[in-house]
Amino acid sequence: MSGLTVKRLVAGYGGEPVLREVDFEVPEGGLLAVLGPSGCGKTTLLRVLAGFHPIASGEVWLGERQLTSDVPPERRGIGIVPQEGALFPHLSVAGNVGFGIGRAERGDRVEELLDLVGLGGFGSRMPAQLSGGQAQRVALARALAPRPEVVLLDEPFSALDAGLREELRADVRATLKAAGATALLVTHDQEEALGIADHVVVLRDGVVAQFARPQTIYTSPADLGVALFVGEAVTFAGVARSGLVETPLGTLPTSGDGPGTVLLRPEQLILGSTGVPSIVDDVLFHGHDATVLLRLADGTRVRSRVQGRISVRAGDVVSVSVDGAALFFEGTP
Ligand SMILES: Nc1ncnc2c1ncn2[C@@H]1O[C@H](COP(=O)(O)OP(=O)(O)OP(=O)(O)O)[C@@H](O)[C@H]1O
After folding, report:
1. Are residue 243 and residue 221 in the same domain, yes or no?
2. Beta bridge partners of residue 221, listed in sequence order
3. Per-residue pLDDT tens digits for 124-153
4. Who's near 234: CB < 8 A, 6+ residues apart?
5. Three-state secondary structure along 113-124?
6. I want to staple 186 with a disulfide (CB 3.0 to 4.6 A). Which of 34, 37, 218, 318 is the partner?
7. H-helix or E-strand spanning residue 135
8. What share of the chain has pLDDT > 70, as a percent?
9. Would you say 262 and 248 are in contact if contact means Cβ atoms under 8 Å apart?
10. What confidence tens digit (pLDDT) does each residue in 87-98 have?
């Protein structure tokens, strides 16, 4: 396994480039998520890395080896887990996993990989006899089989339902770590990116808006666009001065100076016996937590995310206080 380094990468389809001077690094054994909205260039990036699309300028390195556009896909040492698995339907599970490796090594390696992805004993099944989650595990085993230097995962959970997606996410991370794989996963799902990766690249219009650890992306987003993209937010227009900003929820500590947007995460809004009075408009129950929709005296609507037992209901009057500092950004949402 090697680390992957991308330097000032530019690529496109003629006309304006789709990727514009993209820079990031995945250390050996690291798991990077590339997160961005539809059309930002995620698929193009994967295609360039896999060798299916040329580089206009910039560099891609796999350890000490430079991957120029003339290195064909099969000589890159890169494994791919496509969207929805794309298993060969006429081959068994073992046939799929063993497809890219030599006959001599096949038996032991296939069993070892099926065990690694939790599908020991599934070798003789056909793809049509697998659930969506199982098919994705087989696709991951197939990608890991030839011991690639890097594994690329293209929205690998997009076809799965929410519960399975979360379970498989943890398993895929554990499998990649157990295999010592260097991996890059693209997704438009912020929860997925923040939940699975060691580092996240937020890609916007072909430019890296932020490259940082998941927690940093959430708690210290580079700008308002990233902040709004990676999680729910309560925002107000405000003017920051001397580390403070006035908001409908009181005067809050913040950074920045001058006019801009104050941003809080809904879990910072605490319902209790002190704070600003507000009316509960509705409660949206999510199972593990709930969102309480609130209306302040001046009509401002905000939302609070509450863990544990929910003791309020629509029509209640509650007090709202704010936990921690507010983020502050130039511009308006
Ligand atoms: N073959 C192509 N020819 C011309 N333009 C293309 C081609 N493929 C993609 N594009 C354009 O490049 C931009 C980036 O597309 P890309 O598929 O890389 O985005 P994406 O982030 O993967 O989107 P999605 O999440 O919807 O798959 C888009 O504006 C798209 O229209």
Report:
1. no
2. none
3. 999 999 988 889 889 988 988 888 999 999
4. 263, 264, 265, 266, 268, 269, 302, 303
5. HHHHCCCCCCCC
6. 34
7. helix 132-144
8. 99
9. no
10. 999 999 999 999
Residue 40 Cα: closest atom of ligand 1: 21
Which residue lies with its CA nearest to atom 13 of ligand 1?
A: 39
Q: How far is the CA of 319 from the centre of ligand 1 (A)?
A: 47
Q: H or E element: which one contains 175?
A: helix 162-178
Cα 222 to middle of ligand 1, angstroms:
24
- The whole-angstrom separation of Cα 125 and Cα 328 is 55
As for the ipTM of the complex, it is 0.96
DSSP string, 230-293: SS--EEEEEEEETTEEEETTEEEEB---EEEEEEE-GGGEEEESSSEEEEEEEEEE-SSEEEEE
Domain count, the chain: 2
Question: 12: domain CATH number?
Answer: 3.40.50.300
Task: Output the CA 141–ligand 1 centroid distance in Å.
Answer: 28
Number of H helices, E strands in the chain: 8, 20
Q: Which residue has the tokens 């690249």?
A: 201
